[in-house]
Amino acid sequence: MTADPQAPDKGTDEKAHGFQTPEHEKTWLDEPRTIDTLIYGLSAVCALLVVIDPFLGRHGKFEIETLWGFYAFCGFVGCVGVVLIAKLLRTVVKQPEDYYDE
Amino acid sequence: MSEVFSALGLSELNPGVIIIVAALLIPFLSGAVRSIYMLAIPVVAFAHLSGLPTGDFGQFNLFDMTLTTLRVDKLSVLFGTVFLIATFLGVMYALHVGAWLQQVCGLIYAGSAIGAVFAGDFVTLFVFWEMTAVSSVFLIWAANTPSAQKAGLQYLIIQIGSGVILLAGVLFYFRETGSIAFNALDVGAFSGQLILVAFGIKCAFPLVHTWLKASYPEATVTGAVMLSAFTTKLAVYALARGYAGTELLIVIGTVMTLFPILYAIIENDLRRVLAYALIGQLGIMVIGIGIGSDLAVNGAVAHAGAGIFYFAILFMAIGAVLYRTGTAKASELGGLYRSMPFTTAFAVLGALSIAAAPLFAGFVSKSLVLSAAGKDGFFWPWLAILFASGMVVVHTAAKLPYFAFFGRDSGKRCEEAPLNMLVAMGLAAVLCIGIGLYPAPLYALLPNDVSYEPYTVDHVVTQLQLLTFAALAFTLMLRNGLYPLMLKSVNLDTDWFYRRPGHTLAQFANRFRVYTWSFVADAAVGGATRAYQWMHRHAGPDGIFGRTWPTGTMAFWTTVMLGAVVIAGFMKAATGG
Lengths: 102, 577
What we know:
The structure holds two protein chains of two kinds. By secondary structure, chain A is an all-alpha fold. Helices cover about 50% and strands about 0% of the residues of chain A. Chain A has helices at about 15, 30-50, 70-95; one strand at about 95. Chain B has a two-stranded antiparallel sheet. The chains are: A mainly alpha, B mainly alpha. At the A-B interface, α1, α2, α3 and β1 of A face α11, α16, α20 and β3 of B.
């Protein structure tokens, strides 16, 4: 299978791949419910960590560090931002796999 | 063990030399004997090291220079110890490999890196520095693919080049100071600048980093594990020894910490993802060395030590995938947890370590650098490390396990990794968790006497906030199709500037020829084309450099230029300039 490098970044992974896991090989990790539970669990942990933040009396070396939810903000916004920038970068740097071969 | 070496009159032997000499016997052994022998080599060297007192040994005079072939101090013992453990892990991981050349070269490479760490002077350092380059290139070439041949040659040229620049710097240093002892260097002096460039190339500074991302993913399965441990960490050692407190390094380190993240996110080859992640982690170490305080240098070298172990696990896990499935490309992988449950578990532990999750190795080492940056008021480097600490989740720690072992099912079914690979991964995982749970032994090895407590409520909670929100961002982006799909492609990096222009120039000349009709232009371009054809005959696929074109051409000109640099250096030295 050769994916077209010029194809837009759309669609799901499954469509790109086309393999369906046979029923007897499916495990609890393949259940959509498990994935949902994991995401809700992760969200709950995130929420908890932000809620307790102001009660910890954190003290930092810099003023900005002590703002409520500063680290959570850095983690989330930093990651979303860097992925979007990386996608922009890809439009500039992406070339076919054999680009250097000729 | 040290008594044995003393009895042989070898009590002042550099531990690296033991490994190099012992490696030469491997071709004469086979089967279980060879396996036991190879595993025993780093153990014996370690026993010798642990019996060595602090000080300078193995000194002799060469012309009017004093060579110190064995310097034992806290910095060299720390790197020596970590390198010896990495050697043991690397040998264990490669036990199934039958080809003796790879085994011998791997051990000579490890021995040279260890030898370099214990070198007390620049001449000894230079010899081992070049030996690491020459021996390790076989770990790339042994992959035996055309792209590995090319990448290996490029790697060799750049590594040898680093050594040649080091030698030039040492010549100037000797003229300036009359000494070749390897101690703190002055970046204001010309010699200091040359040597910094030499160290910087090996440390994959921005713009000279491309050898790393080009070569490591082309190496053999076992070779990449060895490569990830030694070359760049040797450079970190050299920088820590020579350039602690050089503020320029803070700027360089900050750039190194951030830019590889973008490439790691869109990269399809998972070993190349790790190569970019490695550069990012090196950036944190370089920042620490640049800050130069006791705490910061401790952090840099602790992070180098811890990094060796978690990169070992990650390269081993992806190597095992490549070994069993024949590919390390994210676009072709997925769902391997069914076939390789143990490898999956180890990869996840390695991922938690690189993410610096509390209780894992990365946490207790990265915290030192972050605290040091905060303590001395370096706001921007501090913020860069902070953001990079979160982003490591989306570019490696979550990406790698997700695309290789979970995610959509690729339909690939294979055997679990061989037992020796699992044992090696398991030992590395034990080290990562052990350092994370009980950092005291690692801290005790650090060069500066600073007490530090990584497990404060502040550190733990803020790091958890950073990581859980980064993980949430990754999950939500995957769900909503925002995370880049893994596509078969090449992503242009700065090596484009030397890999591509020849080709582009030829294309440009051709277009020029089409659009101009005047006799003069036609004649000129005809001449240019003939010149190109003449060059193509010699440098093209069938020419004298044919086997390695276009890297062959680059090899030729690099050698010419480096030769010119050395000759200029000698002449300047000879004329007293």
